[in-house]
Amino acid sequence: MPPASERKIKLLVFSTVFPNAVQPHHGVFVRERMRGLMSGSEPSEVEVQVVAPTPWFPFVSGLRPGYRPALPREEVQDGMRVLHPRYLSIPGIFKCLDGVLLFLSTLPALFRLRKSFRFEAIDAHFIYPEGLAAVLHGRVFRVPVLITLRGMLPLLVRYRLRRPQLRFALKRAARLIAVSGSLKQDAVALGVDRVRVIENGIDPRLFAAIDRTEARRSLGLPEDGPLLVSVGTLAPRKGFHLVIEAMAGLRPDLRFAIVGGPGAEGAMESELRSLAIRLGLEDRVIFAGPRGRSELAAWYSAADLFVLASGHEGCPNEVLEALACGTPVVATPVGNIAELLSPEVGIVVEREVPALASAIDEALSRKWDRDAIRARIESRTWAAVGREVMEEVRAAMKDTRAGMKILYHHRTRAGDAQGIHISEIQRAFRNRGHEVVEVALVKAGAEAKADETGGSARGLAGLVSRMPLPAKEAMEHAYNLVAYRRLSRSIREHRPDFVYERYAANTFAGLMAAKRHGVPFVLEVNSPLAMEKAKHDGLFFKRLTRSIERKLCSDADVTIAVTRVLAGILEEEGVPPGKVVVMPNGVRNEFGTNGDGPAFRRGLGIPEDALVVASSAGSAPGMGWSG
After folding, report:
1. Which 3 state secondary structure label does DSSP give 626?
2. Strand pairing of 305-308 and 329-331?
3. Residue 594 pLDDT > 90, yes or no?
4. What is the CATH number of domain 403-582?
5. Distance between CA 409 and CA 485 in Å, rounded?
6. DSSP structural state of residue 450
7. Which of 220, 276, 380, 609 is the Cys-Cys partner for 285 at CB 3.0 to 4.6 Å?
8. Neighbouring residues of 6: CB distance < 8 A, sequence distance ≥ 6
9. Domain 212-378 and domain 403-582 have a common topology
10. pTM here?
11. DSSP output for 33-52
12. Is 73 helix (H, G, I), strand (E, B) or coil?
């Protein structure tokens, strides 16, 4: 097992907005930030799994074609598995239930995922419904949740039934990230103050300046005349209709290219075409349709001016991409636009047709320094964003790792020295702030009534000890049936961070229950029991016991051997090299050397000059007393 400093954090990215096979441009910024998070450091500190739920309701696809397209339940993007579980989303007034329904609908999928990918934190994008659902998932799986606030928060706050849900999610998230200062203020107004602003980024490999003439030629556009460009889904909030109306009073050679297609928020291409015809601009408005990201740099570079007339945004990536290509911007004051656009790179304007027309006219007449525009944004890469987000992930993990819940399983009788060992290690866990839940035939625990001088087997244990070997070993195997049920019930009830088991021969219920429920399994091995029992007690099913021991030590997430010699023996028995971690036993601090030796001897009736050899081991065969 790698050291803690080298182990990757398992992060679950949770967002209903994520590119997919049917909608390749849907939420590209979420995927790009995820990639930046993975590439922001070398080596990467995170291992990521994506769950991108898709809304579903009967008959909606038939009534509104393209509104909620059917997606595959699972796909692979660039070698990464992306899950698309469906969640019930009822249109209309019942949209206020989206957060709870998203949680309930995706809970089974996350339980299944947890068995193969034990995520340690959830990275949720958008406050609702993802943020609320993620916070509820975090409480179920006992993991911290980070929520990134994007452009929807100011719109959702207006709804009376959603407002308390927003507050609940904001206050219970471990970390909050806002993509703009204005979104941070919106969150503060809802009663939280621990919000960090981390804006979106750009991919410098895709978005760099291209000669304007070459860009227009590659796109089949006229080389002369000014060109406006806007990018986005053809939804009303994007304001393409306002730009078309503003064009009507501007120079007659001005063209406007709209790059984008229908999306979840709407598809108004027919309305925009009708508006252009009504204003006599049908020959000057270009509907380019949806384009791949590799083509967008050419559109930005071909433009004299990029225009964003949106009604609300978080941190609009199309503006960042346009700036990275050296194109000046005219934009409405949404999201972080006011912070992003200085007078040297663009103009901020109110969302009204006369104001837009005036700003576009002014921008087209101004001489812009395209190198200065590129310099404004060139350092804002997704890798840089990823490093900032990683700081928040680490902080969230640190905040919630103060105490863990440990399910401690053993088959040892409490009335001997082994019981003292079990009691002490549980005490040590508790002293470090962890919660310990014990599952055992006879509980040792921190308050175990262990006979520290040893003790003979009584009751059922005494009966088993007098059985012939085949029956005795059969009883050991039968114990697994009882233990598996107890362990499974305890795992479901307590949801531990891991199962810790003290190894006992022929006991495999702990490994089975842990694997069945997707919980890490830690095995503590104090001696090579198969070898020792065969030598001293005798084994009837010798090969079976050895194979179980080898399987347990090999399949445990961590196998702890108390000595290097023991680790070597386990490897000789077939446990993969490097699988075993050596961790010697310990002692309490009070067992020091400050005692008065002569006084102790006098109290025990031992001559002060006598040579004394002491041992605290039990009297079981193999302890060396017969030699």
Report:
1. coil
2. parallel
3. no
4. 3.40.50.2000
5. 13
6. -
7. 276
8. none
9. yes
10. 0.71
11. HHHHHHHSSSS-SEEEEEE-
12. coil
Size of the chain, expressed as the number of residues it contains: 627
Q: Domain-by-domain residue ranges, the chain?
A: 9-197, 212-378, 403-582
Angle of helix 353-365 relative to helix 240-247, nearest 10 degrees, comes to 70
The answer, yes or no, to whether residue 454 has pLDDT greater than 50, is: no
Amino acid at 469: L
Q: What is the DSSP letter of 440?
A: E
Distance CA 591, CA 589 (A): 5
User: What confidence category does residue 453 fall into, taking pLDDT thresholds of 50, 70 and 90?
Assistant: very low
CATH code linked to domain 9-197: 3.40.50.2000
Report d(CA 318, CA 303) in Å as an integer. Answer: 13
Angle between the 293-302 and 317-324 helix axes, to the nearest 10 degrees? Answer: 60
Backbone angles phi, psi at 289, to 5 degrees: 75, 175
Looking at the predicted structure, is the pLDDT value of residue 576 above 80? Answer: yes
CA distance 325 to 552: 58
Q: CA distances (Å), 93 to each of 65, 68, 110, in order?
A: 21, 18, 28
Alpha helices in 80-180 (DSSP H): 98-116, 132-141, 153-156, 163-172
CB contact burial 67-91 (16+ within 10 A = b; e otherwise): bbeebeeebeeeeeebbbbbbbbee
Check if the beta carbon of residue 419 is closer than 8 Å to that of residue 448. yes
Strand order in the sheet with 346-348: 285-287, 255-259, 227-231, 305-308, 329-331, 346-348
Helix orientation angle between 370-377 and 317-324, rounded to the nearest 10 degrees = 130
Cis status of the peptide bond prior to 43, with omega within 30 of 0: yes
The alpha carbon torsion through 228, 232, 236, 238 (nearest 10 deg) reads -60
